[in-house]
Structures are given as structure tokens and as C-alpha cells.
């Protein structure tokens, strides 16, 4: 006879155990192991096979027709770039980011543009988010702010429209009822961690609640052909809060990042079933909201009238986009036995390695000097292509000789003092030439000594 077997399963990764433990033995997450009782018989018993329904039989892949996915523009060019051309009907999009970075502001602007789109076309001639049936209503469900707060922000941004519907709810069933009543062309939920279902135990934001809320909203989106955007909180390490299953359920995962001290914001895709994942959107935070920056080439360059020592321009790749960035260095006599190494926008360990190579391979005297390295505009350089620009900026600061204003450098520096080629060299060179940098230093200079000579230092 069948007997009930009490099993415990991890809600994050599905790991099973016969007794309860506080920490999952597979993904090492705390508090994710829950009891799951199920009916079982002997181990030899298997599930009975069921014949497939008519028209659902397995067929050769060569005889299947590909599904055509039509991207509909949101009216924001940088957002369309990241999404692969726009929003696909029925798509589930997860939008994450640090608190206060501007997620709600950007989505409210996109909601107003979608509500104002209707049957009209975007700048590229494609229909906007509302579908071909003429629906232009957008439902913005906020669980963190009241409708009055959202209205005040929309008024400041100029994002008021009669087809933009606001609701402040934390109950999942009520939100689903609003979706049925409004029949929107786009649904935005801010945020998924604030909604709760009465059919699932636990507080809002728990793994079980987030899984149930996300699953119900995604099923509603797929069944109605209505795209839904879910705003998700992030943890201290920058990952999306809640069960890892949430990222698997959605079609697109976008991360909105930026430093609160600067106005620059970047939108990246971590997952996209309808387009590439290496696109980056650039935005700027202003008093009236977030404004897209189609050409951010001038944001990361200084505006000095004459060349200044300790500065060098490089070209960084953010996704498929080439961005010119200026690296600045300052070298001063240290007043302490342990010289300071201060960095901003660059990897400190990478700078320490470059300084060691300069002292050992080039003969630069840095062991008793304070070295400060920074980028212009608050941009962060994490790729090794900026090594050569950092090295030349430091050498320029030591000799107090400015580099030519039409020089751009990019290349990776090895511990042997070699300059190695980097990914996208041709794209970097073409972008530098477009901005007026006639001379470029890259892996053509085989060693750091040769690069120093070519730069005139």
C-alpha cells in the first residue's frame, strides 16, 4: 500500500532531504528548506505513460515554423536598445536595482509614453507597446507608494495621461482583478516583493510568496498576451532578492545601476530570450526625471582648454557600445612611510599591479610617492583594456609632461611589461577616430617602453 513519505525540499534549488535542516546542502541558503508531504509507493513504481493529444505529437524540428516575435517600441530609445528592440507581447520582464537608483522613475516614464502611444508609431515607424487591437491603457500597480505619491512624481515628470491607471495594492488577487477590469496593454508591478497571496502562508517578500506572486502574474501575462514588468529588490551583494527561481520564470532580467553621487545610470540585461544580452542603455538623472543619453561620448572627458599632465584618454566597451573615458593620475611626494594608493572608478588591485610593473620594467620611482588614479564622470572601468591608459597617465604625472590631446590608448599590460591586444580593438579605434583622436596606442607597441616612447614621455 502507498504510504506518506515526509520529505523536505529547498525552495531555491530543489534539493531534497529526509529531515529538516536550517541550511540547504546544495545552494547553502538559510531558511529555504520546507516540508513537502507526498504519496509514494514502492521505489519500483513509475508514472504511467499517457498518449499525446491530437496535434501535439512530437515532430521533426525542420518541419516546424518559427514563431515571429514583434518587438514594440517603448518610446525610449535606450530602453529599446537593451530589450532588443522593444517589448514583446506577453513577455515577463524583471527590473532590478539598488534603492533610489531610479527604477520607478524610469518605468513611470515608460508607462506614460506607452499610454500616449495608442495606435501611433514611434520614430522608427514601428508600433509602440500597445498592440494592434488598439489597446493603449497601462496599469501601474504600486505596493510601496500611495497613488498620491506616484501622481506627484508623474506631475513633476510630465507623465500624466488619461490612459495611465494607478493602483496601490499589496494583495495579489486584487491586482489580478484590476488587470481584468482595466484590460491594459502593459502592466507594471512595483514591486513583486510587496505583493502577497492569501492562499500561501508567509509574509510578503518570502520565497514562497514571491514564487506564487510571480507565477500568477506571469501566467496572466502569457494568457492575455500582455507584457508585465516586475520590479525586484536586490540584496547587499547586488543579486535579486527572493528565490532564484524568479529569474528563471521571467523572459528578461534587467539591472539598473548607478552611483548616487553622480547623475549617470546604466541599464544592462542579464538575461533576454528575445535579444542580445550585451547591450547597455545610458541615462542621466535630472530634476524632472531620467533622460536617455543616446551619445554619452562627452560625459567622461574633461573640458580643459590645453593638455594637462597626468591625463590619458581610453576607449571602454560597455556591451556593444564604445565609450571614450579619460583617466587622470596624480603623483606627489609621500609624507608617510607607507605611500597612499587612492583610486576612484578603477580596480585598486589592478592599479597596484600596474604601478609595480612601471617601477620594475620602466624604472619609474614610485615606492615613496602617493599615487591617485581616477576616472572622469564617475564611470567605472573594470576591463583590463584600461591598463595602458592608466600607465601612461601615471608616467605623464611623474614627468609632468602632458600627452598629446589627440592620443587615445587601450591595451592590457602583463607582468612582463608587454602590451597585449584586447577585445574589440577595431571598434575602439574607429570610435576614437570619430571623436578626433588621430593617434591611438594599442598592442602595436609590443612593450610598455615602446608605448612610452611613442607617447613622447
TrEMBL record:
Short motif RadA KNRFG motif, span: 271-275
Keyword Zinc-finger: yes
Ranges where the record places region Disordered: 116-136
Annotated RecA family profile domain residues: 68-234
SUPFAM superfamilies cross-referenced by the UniProt entry: P-loop containing nucleoside triphosphate hydrolases, Ribosomal protein S5 domain 2-like
Gene Ontology CC terms, in alphabetical order: cytosol
Binding residues annotated for ATP, in chain numbering: 97-104
Residues covered by region (Lon-protease-like): 370-457
Protein origin, superkingdom: Bacteria
Key words of the record: ATP-binding, DNA damage, DNA repair, DNA-binding, Hydrolase, Metal-binding, Nucleotide-binding, Stress response, Zinc, Zinc-finger
Gene Ontology biological-process annotations: proteolysis; recombinational repair
CDD domains: RadA_SMS_N
Molecular function GO terms recorded: ATP binding; ATP-dependent DNA damage sensor activity; ATP-dependent peptidase activity; damaged DNA binding; serine-type endopeptidase activity; zinc ion binding
Classification via InterPro entries: AAA+_ATPase, DNA_repair_RadA, Lon_proteolytic, P-loop_NTPase, RecA_ATP-bd, Ribosomal_Su5_D2-typ_SF, Ribsml_uS5_D2-typ_fold_subgr, Rubredoxin_2
Record's keyword annotation contains Signal: no
Role description: Plays a role in repairing double-strand DNA breaks, probably involving stabilizing or processing branched DNA or blocked replication forks. DNA-dependent ATPase involved in processing of recombination intermediates, plays a role in repairing DNA breaks. Stimulates the branch migration of RecA-mediated strand transfer reactions, allowing the 3' invading strand to extend heteroduplex DNA faster. Binds ssDNA in the presence of ADP but not other nucleotides, has ATPase activity that is stimulated by ssDNA and various branched DNA structures, but inhibited by SSB. Does not have RecA's homology-searching function.
UniProt record similarity statement: Belongs to the RecA family. RadA subfamily.
Domain comment as written in the entry: The middle region has homology to RecA with ATPase motifs including the RadA KNRFG motif, while the C-terminus is homologous to Lon protease.
Protein's name according to its UniProt entry: DNA repair protein RadA
Source species of the chain: Leucobacter ruminantium
Amino acid at each position: 500500500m502507498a504510504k506518506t513519505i515526509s520529505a523536505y525540499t529547498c525552495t531555491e534549488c530543489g534539493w531534497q532531504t529526509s529531515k529538516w535542516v536550517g541550511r540547504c546542502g546544495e545552494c547553502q541558503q538559510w531558511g529555504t528548506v520546507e516540508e513537502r508531504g507526498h504519496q509514494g509507493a514502492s521505489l519500483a513504481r513509475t508514472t504511467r505513460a499517457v498518449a499525446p493529444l491530437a496535434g501535439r505529437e512530437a515532430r521533426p524540428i525542420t518541419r516546424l515554423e518559427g514563431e515571429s516575435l514583434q518587438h514594440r517600441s517603448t518610446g525610449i530609445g535606450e530602453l529599446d536598445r537593451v530589450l532588443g528592440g522593444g517589448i514583446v507581447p506577453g513577455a515577463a520582464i524583471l527590473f532590478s536595482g539598488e534603492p533610489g537608483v531610479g527604477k520607478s522613475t524610469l518605468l513611470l516614464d515608460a508607462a506614460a509614453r506607452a499610454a500616449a502611444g495608442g495606435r501611433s508609431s514611434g520614430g522608427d515607424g514601428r508600433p509602440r507597446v500597445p498592440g494592434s487591437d488598439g489597446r493603449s491603457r497601462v496599469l501601474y500597480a504600486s505596493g510601496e507608494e500611495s497613488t498620491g505619491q506616484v501622481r506627484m512624481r508623474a506631475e513633476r515628470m510630465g507623465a500624466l495621461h488619461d490612459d495611465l491607471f494607478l493602483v496601490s495594492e499589496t494583495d495579489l488577487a486584487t491586482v489580478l482583478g484590476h488587470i481584468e477590469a482595466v484590460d491594459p496593454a502593459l502592466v507594471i508591478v512595483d514591486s513583486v516583493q510587496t505583493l502577497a497571496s492569501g492562499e500561501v502562508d508567509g509574509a510578503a517578500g518570502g520565497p514562497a510568496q514571491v514564487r506564487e506572486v510571480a507565477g500568477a502574474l506571469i501566467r496572466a501575462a502569457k494568457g492575455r498576451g500582455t507584457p508585465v514588468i516586475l520590479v525586484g529588490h536586490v540584496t547587499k551583494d547586488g543579486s535579486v532578492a527572493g528565490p532564484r527561481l524568479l529569474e528563471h520564470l521571467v523572459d528578461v532580467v534587467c539591472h539598473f545601476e548607478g552611483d548616487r553621487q553622480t547623475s549617470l545610470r546604466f541599464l544592462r540585461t542579464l538575461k533576454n530570450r528575445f535579444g542580445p544580452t550585451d547591450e547597455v542603455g545610458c541615462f542621466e538623472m535630472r530634476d524632472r526625471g531620467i533622460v536617455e543619453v543616446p551619445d554619452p561620448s562627452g560625459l567622461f572627458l574633461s573640458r580643459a582648454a590645453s593638455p594637462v599632465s597626468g591625463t590619458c584618454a581610453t576607449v571602454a566597451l560597455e556591451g556593444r557600445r564604445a565609450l571614450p573615458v579619460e583617466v587622470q593620475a596624480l603623483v606627489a611626494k609621500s609624507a608617510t612611510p607607507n605611500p597612499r594608493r587612492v583610486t576612484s572608478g578603477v580596480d585598486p588591485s589592478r592599479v597596484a599591479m600596474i604601478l609595480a610593473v612601471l617601477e620594475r620594467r620602466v624604472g619609474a620611482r614610485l615606492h615613496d610617492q602617493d599615487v591617485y588614479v581616477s576616472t572622469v564622470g564617475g564611470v567605472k572601468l573594470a576591463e583590463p583594456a584600461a591598463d595602458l591608459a592608466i600607465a601612461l597617465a601615471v608616467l605623464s604625472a611623474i614627468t609632468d609632461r602632458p600627452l598629446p590631446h589627440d592620443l587615445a590608448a587601450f591595451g592590457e599590460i602583463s607582468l612582463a611589461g608587454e602590451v597585449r591586444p584586447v577585445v574589440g580593438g577595431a571598434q575602439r579605434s574607429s570610435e576614437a577616430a570619430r571623436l578626433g583622436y588621430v593617434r591611438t596606442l594599442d598592442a602595436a607597441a609590443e612593450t610598455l617602453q615602446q608605448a612610452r616612447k611613442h607617447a613622447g614621455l
